[in-house]
Amino acid sequence: MTDSILITENLTKEFDGFKAINNLNFSMEPGELRVVIGPNGAGKTTFLDLITGKTKPTTGQVLYKGKKVRRYSEEKISRLGIGRKFQTPRVYLNLTARENLELAASKHKNVLGTLFKQRTKDERDRVGILLETIGLAVKADRPADLLSHGEKQRLEIGMLVAQSPDLLLVDEPVAGLTDEETENVGNLLVTLAESHAILVIEHDMEFVRQIARKVTVLHQGSVLCEGTIDEVQNDPKVIEVYLGQPRSVDS
Ligand code: ADP
Ligand code: MG
To answer: Which of 56, 57, 136, 175 is the most exposed place for a label (fewest CB within 10 A)?
Structure first.
């Protein structure tokens, strides 16, 4: 047995006979920060959809903490501790940063928790710490609408963390951000990686260099190569299929 937090075994997803994910074997250890890169159409988003249960595999398995999740709904998989951040921020613009975090923190609350309407001191402390972690403590009480795009991204990452997941899935967190905001998000992910396993999908190679320890290159639905950023950037197969291509604009 293994203690990998996430494993995929011979994972395949067909759309009308086309294999978007093709016999994919992948694994991640608890506490790992992994970046998955790959050209457009490589299957990156489909990969996340299969992990979260948004789509079901044609064949093969996804194992989370050793448990096959195929039979579980998206909601149940989320409750098991897999949190996903989509590309565009999904924060409530008319609520403050603090309120957004409080709302997220109460999402998966058990029955006992929901019986007590008042926020416990513990909860308030947790939200306060989270506001510090995402660098929004000074802007905690203004509407999220007034935050910059980068701050909204950080807030949404905070909302994800508020739900206490063990595995965070993050799809292109720095697309459209300034260099400074990109660095902030990178630092945040590195900090969060001290207490969570994080899987990041990303195009921005400089960002990948900032955060990555191990990089997986996806190509035509399978793992093309894995290694450090230097190893994958110098791999002739990778240069041919990915780095040789013009940088694409979307995911
Ligand atoms: P990436 O995120 O790496 O750009 P995707 O996972 O979005 O790649 O897509 C991988 C391939 O699967 C693409 O060729 C895409 O057109 C195809 N695909 C994805 N979702 C569907 C779908 N719902 N129906 C048909 N084809 C799909
Ligand atoms: Mg995509």
So the answer is: 56
- The tally of domains found in the chain comes to 1
Helices and strands in the chain, H and E counts:
10, 10
Is the confidence at residue 112, as pLDDT, over 80?
Answer: no
pLDDT by residue (tens digit) across 118-171?
667 777 888 999 999 999 999 999 999 999 999 999 999 999 999 889 999 999
pTM above 0.85, yes or no: yes
Which atom of ligand 1 is nearest to 218's Cα?
3
Using DSSP bridges, classify how beta strands 214-219 and 197-201 pair: parallel, antiparallel or unpaired: unpaired
Average pLDDT of the residues in 3-17:
96
| Element containing residue 196 per DSSP (H, E) | none
CB atoms within 10 A of CB 85: 21
Residue numbers of the domain that contains 91? 6-243
- Tell me, in angstroms, the distance from the centre of ligand 2 to residue 48's CA: 9
Give the rounded distance of the alpha carbon of 179 from its chain centre.
20
Return the CATH number at 212: 3.40.50.300
Task: Count CB atoms within 10 A of the CB of residue 147.
Answer: 21
Maximum Cα interatomic distance, the chain, rounded to a whole number of Å:
59
Neighbours of ion ligand 2 (CB under 5 A): 44-45, 251
Can you tell me the distance from the alpha carbon of 91 to that of 190, in angstroms, rounded to the nearest whole number? 22
